[in-house]
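Entry:
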Amino acid sequence: MAERPTRRVRLDTPLERASRRPHYDPDAFGKVSEQIARFLGTARFLVYMTVFIAVWIGINVTPYAFDPYTFTFLTLLLSLQASYAAPLILLAQNRQADRDRVSLDEDRATSQRLQADVEYLTREVASLRQALGEVATREYLRDQLREMTDEVVDRTRTANEAPEPAESQAVKAKREDRERREDRERRAERKKRRQAREQETAVLHGLGEPFVGGDEDG
């Protein structure tokens, strides 16, 4: 059989000792302690405790007493109950404090995020207001158009009042002749179209009249 290799132990590494302490789930134990602490803080527990003490005292003042130490055993039970109740209540309070701390940290982080969002929105609104301040308004556009119109009118008037050279006059005359010729052609074309439409209307009107047989004078 092959020999199992021995594990070398370093001198600078502490030995791992097997822990013999009992293991438990802290979360489960904490939940149980919180349930017990909540029960101890209710009126039902007070009623149960009062009934228990009254029954204990009532039985032990009769010949059927089972506490030979004159309620010393009852005092011991109450002391044990108080000694266990106090740590359970403290444990529940510590768990509640931890939850409150986590909730406070989350609320603080949420507040920081909200503050950052508000600052961002504030900057955006300020930039929008600045951009809107630079946008041309209706009155500004009207003033600019009015100034441009006045400038164009002034330049046109100045150009019309200035004497034209002979060459420009000839070009202008040719352009006028060409415009008059094109105008006559357009008029002739419109006249032809109007006559054609009148003929079509007459034909359609003749077709739409009722037929009368024979001549009335005959």
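The longest helix spans residues 72-134.
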